[in-house]
From TrEMBL:
InterPro entries: CheY-like_superfamily, P-loop_NTPase, ParA/MinD_ATPase. Residues 388-430 are annotated as: Disordered. Transmembrane segments: none annotated. Keywords: ATP-binding, Nucleotide-binding. This is Pilus assembly protein CpaE. Gene3D superfamilies: 3.40.50.2300, P-loop containing nucleotide triphosphate hydrolases (3.40.50.300). It comes from Sphingobium xenophagum.
Length: 430
């Protein structure tokens, strides 16, 4: 992710700090700072190293001048500076290396300007005036597209909800080029980072333990980058330590995602859904992932009923995953009749593609390009985007049964697989 200094961020802070390496620069910067009405004592000696140490324990200024003359690895040192700078800081660097590639790399990393030493007082004044104008400029206009949040819920363990969550996040970020956050709320056994061949880090654990720390800077530091447009927040919390939380941290994280990313994908375990129902309140699209089995039919009915009551404004998609090419446990027609609505997308089962994705550390959608599974994943993406843009006044879901019928009261699960039960009875008689 780019360096966290973003022009236009608000917040009380000192107007100017400087860290320089030599006496001549020290005297010149102090004099120009005084001319601009800034406190000369905010000009310090010590260069980049002192800047990183000082800003790690104090608030960042509006404008930061840092001398990189003693830096052996300028780009790495700039990244270290980015770790301790608050959003909104405008950074001017100075150094003795006259290299256009270095200049471009520094600007790409978030630096506002780079002054080649020795520089004059006029150059410094111009650079500081430009930095001041950048800081005072209004924030960028809000994005044309509103934030889209997608929750992925598996009806049962092992139906592949996490696999599809990572695939949806990858497709939104890579195919649609939308900055996307992936939040894995299975804090003990989550697999989203593993599926992307990433280390989960401690970001989610820290957020749960210290919700008050959650802000834009925390998001910048805590999330693990999968690509330029995809970041993930997950955990592998010790299974000997239960996570005691009221869910406030999760809600705050999703609020921060709305200001930083265009899309959020939340891998939401069933148990977390029950414990923290407020997490689904502002989600535009809820994806219920299931298999064509008797147990999944029962739990799909229960989850759909829960969503109708607790998240009436969320558009619900039912996705049948890992559908075998032979006869499934329940046919699609019988499954749809049992849940009283259509299955929106059917993802076929392909052991070779699933195994390859796991070995390569890539998402199912990326690995399955050009296959039936890949085509189904693309259809899923379009269904999600269509659901997010649907008229909220329209009925939620595509009903297959009669309106007003009770979901749980109408279904006779025992009659859904007569041939199997008959065979079993015959075997027992024999």
């Amino acid at each position: 992710m780019n360096a966290p200094w973003k022009p236009g961020a608000a917040g009380p802070r000192d107007p100017f700090h400087a860290f320089v390496c030599d006496d001549h620069s020290f005297d010149m910067v102090r004099a120009v700072a005084a001319e601009m009405g800034w406190a000369p004592e905010k000009v310090n000696k010590g260069g980049m190293r002192n800047a990183v140490q000082s800003l790690s324990i104090t608030a960042s200024p509006q404008i930061l001048f840092v001398d990189m003359s003693e830096s052996g690895d300028p780009l790495n040192d700039i990244n270290s500076l980015a770790e301790v700078c608050e959003p909104g800081t405008v950074v001017i660097a100075a150094g003795q290396v006259n290299d256009v590639r270095l200049y471009r790399d520094l600007v790409a990393s978030g630096i506002q300007d780079y002054l080649l030493k020795p520089f004059g007082a006029d150059q410094l004044r111009d650079a500081l005036a430009n930095a001041q104008a950048v800081f005072m400029a209004p924030r960028d206009a809000a994005p044309e597209r509103p934030h889209m949040a997608v929750a992925v819920i598996g009806t049962r363990g092992g139906v592949g909800a996490s696999s599809l969550a990572t695939s949806v996040a990858w497709m939104l970020s890579e195919k649609k080029k939308r900055p996307t956050a992936l939040l894995d709320l299975d804090v003990h056994f989550g697999t989203d980072a593993l599926a992307l061949d990433l280390e989960p880090g401690r970001g989610l654990t820290d957020a749960i333990e210290n919700p008050s720390r959650i802000d834009g800077l925390f998001i910048e530091r805590a999330m693990v980058r999968a690509s330029d447009t995809l970041a993930i927040l997950s955990a592998e919390a010790p299974i000997s330590q239960p996570m005691l939380t009221d869910g406030g941290a999760f809600y705050q994280l999703m609020e921060e995602f709305r200001s930083v990313f265009e899309c959020s994908v939340v891998d939401l375990p069933r148990a977390m859904l029950i414990q923290h129902p407020h997490l689904i309140s502002d989600v535009q699209v809820t994806m219920v992932v299931t298999e064509l089995t008797l147990a999944s039919a029962r739990d799909t009915i229960r989850i759909l009923s829960w969503l109708k009551t607790n998240a009436p404004n969320s558009r619900v998609l039912v996705v049948a995953n890992r559908v075998h090419p032979g006869s499934p446990e329940i046919s699609r027609k019988d499954f749809e009749q049992s849940i009283e609505r259509k299955v929106d997308v059917l993802i076929p089962f392909d052991l070779r593609i699933a195994s390859q994705a796991a070995k390569l550390g890539k998402t199912l959608a990326e690995t399955a390009k050009g296959s039936k599974v890949g085509a189904a994943c693309s259809s899923l993406l379009e269904e999600i985007l269509g659901a997010a843009q649907a008229d909220p006044d329209q009925p939620n879901g595509k009903t297959a049964g009669k309106k007003g019928d009770s979901l749980l009261g109408k279904i006779d699960f025992r009659s859904m697989m007569p041939s199997r039960r008959k065979d079993k009875a015959t075997a027992l008689e024999d």
